[in-house]
Amino acid sequence: MASAKDLLKFFMSGANYFDKPRVGGGRAKDPALYSPFSMTKHRNAPYDYEVEGSLLGNLDRPTVVTPSQIQGKTLYFATGDRTSNDRLIERINDYLLPDPKQTYGGPEYMDQRNRGSWASEPTAMRAKQKALNDAGLLGEDALLAYMPMGERSGDFSKHMSEVYGEMIKASPMGGNSFGMIDDAIAARFPKLKDVPSYKNREQFADWLSNLKGGQRASLIKFFDSSQMQDLGLPDVGAARFAITNPDLVNSEALSVGYRMSTPDLLSEMVKSKQHPSYGAYMPRKEGTGSLTLSSELPFIIGARDTALPKAAAGKLQPLPKDIKSYMGNPRLRQLVDQQFVDEAGKYEDLLRNQGPEAAAQYTRSLLDAYISRN
Questions:
Q1: Which of 85, 137, 209, 275 qualifies as a cystine partner to 161, CB 3.0-4.6 A?
Q2: Phi and psi for 85 in degrees, rounded to 5?
Q3: DSSP per residue over 254-313, as a string?
Q4: Of 265-269, 284-288, 311-315, 353-357, where does mean pLDDT reach its minimum?
Q5: pLDDT score, position 4
Q6: How far apart (Å, rounded) are the C-alpha atoms in residues 257 and 301?
């Protein structure tokens, strides 16, 4: 019989999410070596990624609701990275992390006990607070609805740099690359001060994780470049995959419904050091927990009023500028009206009974109908 400890273990395999690379494909481009988890061609096929770790058991399960059960509520959108929460990352491919690191990210923040409705940087959270306060004064019944950003959006998070730092510590790389790595970092980031040599792995990893979020993200993205990967740095794509919520590996950007929470609309944001990446949170309404729909809704259904005009160029998938729009405007919202309930219900039914292709065709028909009307 498995022990209690064994029951808390988890394993992620890239084979469950990515295509297998071709064998003997010649010089033809192999799509399996390209994914949104890296800006460049993968040296290691994502299909072969493996991640092991432990579930720490501190999250509550969300309550599953139907679209009709939230009818009349107004959704305000909380864009965020798609990283996991409350997981201890212990192994990534051949890297046994010397000091396994915990994840704190993404939508499962809403599942945490005795925490807020959503966390962010103080400036962004203050703007969100003002929007929610106004909603409360207008008598709206509001939910914060999570929207996933891109697959590389977790680069800002402290736990990404911590996990990647442990891969650096465990890296077998040696030889004469250290000086070239130091020179490349100095050339790319001339304003960074007191940068330790990459040769001092532990010191370099600790320095990386203690930088500000924007600096961490810029360095991680640079380490994902062909230049730095050719110098032997650990696979950044593998680290991104390792910290990603398994439910969200293949999610559409700006989908709606994976997590929702009920903010205290008339409260002030709270500055806090509880979260390692973000310094403020919006309190949740007392006695409420997180919610989830049975399926994530495409953004032209879940955020219909604002998403359809953005998609009118004919794109079902949101563009980077669309993601920035939802990130930057805290007042974008969607009333869960009868049209929302009908369209979301039909989408969920098609997805459940006929599969993703039928659901995508229905989504496309909604966009085509909007374009023909306008």
A1: 209
A2: -135, 140
A3: T-B-S-EE-B-TTSPPEE-SSSSS-SEEEPBPTT---EE-SSPBPHHHHTHHHHHHHHTT
A4: 311-315
A5: 46
A6: 10
d(CA 216, CA 159) in angstroms, rounded, equals: 10
190 CB-near residues (< 8 Å, 6+ apart): none
- Sheet with strand 280-282: strands edge to edge: 118-120, 280-282, 270-271
List, in order, residues 6 or more apart from 65 with CB less than 8 Å away: 291, 292, 293
CA 115 to chain centroid? 19
pLDDT at 277: 80
Confidence bin at 1 (pLDDT 50/70/90): very low
CA distance linking residue 13 with residue 10, whole number of Å: 10
Q: Based on the number of CB atoms within 10 Å of its own CB, is 246 exposed (0-12), middle (13-18) or buried (19 or more)?
A: middle
Residue 92 in contact with residue 103, Cβ under 8 Å?
Answer: no
Residue found under tokens 């499962």: 108
Q: What is the 3-state secondary structure (H, E, C) of 187-215?
A: HHCCCCCCCCCCCCHHHHHHHHHCCCHHH
Q: From start to end of the chain, where are the E strands?
A: 9-13, 50-55, 63-64, 74-80, 85-92, 95-104, 118-120, 142-148, 260-261, 270-271, 280-282, 291-292, 333-335
Our measurement of the distance from residue 90's CA atom to the centroid of its chain's CA atoms, rounded to an integer in Å, reads 20
Q: Give the pLDDT band (50/70/90) at residue 175.
A: low
- Rounded Cα gap, residues 300 and 316, in angstroms: 8
